[in-house]
Design brief:
Elements (H helix, E strand, L loop, with lengths): L2 H25 L9 E4 L5 E4 L6 E4 L6 E4 L6 E3 L6 E4 L3 E5 L5 E4 L5 E2 L5 E2 L5 E5 L2 E2 L2 E2 L6 E2 L7 E2 L6 E7 L12 E9 L5 E10 L6 E7 L13 E6 L16 E3 L9 E5 L2 E2 L2 E2 L1 E2 L6 E7 L5 E8 L4 E6 L4 E7 L1 E3 L7 E4 L2 E3 L8 E3 L8 E4 L1 E3 L5 H36 L1
Helix pairs in contact: 1-2
């Protein structure tokens, strides 16, 4: 009978621990990336009573409950935050904790510290790649801190190629009102200054289905005007398509600019692959599209996390460049990880070695930018568990009081 004291006390301790776990789950109902813990009870060794071993067995109560973290997928909530990121599937963000320890987290509410490093909300540095090799991120190297290029200026890109998608009026007659057509495109030099390149097409008076062209920049842009234009001819077939006998235009050479920028050599692309960009149909001469591959210098406008964990920098000229990549780790037995606070986990002695790589590869989950993963705590389930554990605690407390009364009765029998 007197073992009932220790049996009931073990139950009280176990139920108290279970209530603590429920309380912690409910406390983290709104914690980003939080994973619910569940309690696992187990009984203690039993004692056999009586002559026939095993016929009467009385246990010694319940052992200290085991807690297990359930790494189920939480709901993905779109936030619109430029640095927010959510893991969809297996994996963890890799962060650098205190004393340079490697930790893992599912919380993607990132921010930038005073040094430009991407960090968690609690200040741990997010790990990934920012090193460029031949203009591409080197994700084969060991991951390190991700530094956001705040306040930088993107250098200009000189124009090297231009194109005009247009139609020249087949009904135009030399000397008539429609025998000349002009279109233009803005190009950029090595300093980022803009120049207007104008292409003028004139119906050839001597050769049918032929137009003469002249491509030039304004004389005011030159140190020693006038500018010598690029000239040549375009010949068309009877069906209005560009003839294969048409010689490709020479590069447009622009040297001696007044702003002292470097000399330019611009290619005029007459074809989109194998399809001619210029036609001659019986329609008014018109331009449908122009293109060039240069850009002026630009200020950094915004940095954000894109889908796949890429760090994207957006500039004032509309360009968007990948400047970093967030790393992701998978652990074969994530339930063995130890929570260390701040939404982070560390490896335990029972944990498998993590595999670190790019999201979406090697069985790793994907990353959704502008979103966060919600806590997996279910309030209805936790309230139900709370009631069950409370009733269990009350029942075992009643066992203690009952055994105490029986003990008093036994003492009275001795008297």
């Amino acid at each position: 009978m007197f073992t009932s004291f220790s049996t009931a006390l073990s139950a009280l301790a176990a139920d108290s621990t279970a209530i603590d776990v429920v309380g912690n789950n409910l406390a983290n109902l709104n914690t980003v990336g939080y994973k619910t813990s569940v309690v696992s009870f187990h009984d203690l060794v039993t004692q056999s009573m009586g002559a026939n071993l095993g016929n009467t067995q009385v246990g010694f109560g319940v052992g200290t409950p085991l807690t297990e973290r359930q790494f189920t997928q939480g709901a993905i909530q779109t936030t619109g935050g430029t640095l927010d990121a959510a893991v969809q599937g297996l994996g963890f963000f890799v962060v650098q904790g205190a004393n340079n320890t490697t930790e893992y987290t599912r919380a993607g509410n990132f921010q930038v510290d005073q040094n430009g490093n991407l960090t968690t909300a609690t200040g741990e540095a997010v790990q990934g790649w920012t090193q460029l090799v031949n203009g591409q991120l080197n994700t084969n190297a060991a991951p390190g801190n991700i530094t956001i290029p705040t306040g930088t200026v993107q250098p200009p890109t000189p124009t090297q190629n231009i194109s005009f998608d247009l139609n020249l009026n087949a009904a135009a007659v030399s000397g008539g009102a429609n025998d000349t057509f002009a279109t233009s495109v803005t190009v950029y030099d090595s300093l980022g200054n803009s120049h207007i390149v104008t292409a003028t097409f004139t119906k050839d008076p001597a050769t049918p289905n032929q137009w003469d062209y002249s491509v030039a920049v304004p004389d005011a842009d030159m140190q020693n005007p006038p500018f010598t234009p690029l000239t040549g001819s375009l010949t068309f077939n009877s069906d209005g398509s560009l003839s294969s006998t048409t010689a490709p235009p020479q590069p447009l050479v622009i040297s001696g600019l007044a702003d002292n920028a470097g000399d330019m050599s611009v290619n005029w692309n007459l074809y989109n692959g194998t399809t001619p960009r210029v036609t001659q149909y019986a329609q008014p001469s018109s331009t449908s599209a122009v293109a060039q591959d240069g850009s002026p210098a630009a200020q950094l406008v915004q940095v954000g996390v894109g889908n796949g964990g890429q760090i994207l920098a957006q500039y004032s000229n509309g360009d968007q460049t990948v400047v970093g990549q967030i790393a992701m780790a998978t652990v074969r037995n994530p339930d063995s990880l130890v929570a260390v606070g701040n939404n982070n986990y560390e490896l335990s002695a029972n944990s498998a070695l993590p595999a670190i790589g790019v999201p979406g590869t090697g069985g790793r989950g994907t990353v959704q930018g502008g979103a966060l993963e919600s806590s997996t705590t279910d309030i209805a389930t936790e309230f139900t568990n709370l009631i069950v554990y409370q009733r269990a605690y009350e029942a075992n407390a009643k066992v203690v009081t009952s055994v105490d009364e029986l003990s008093q009765d036994t003492i009275e029998l001795i008297k």
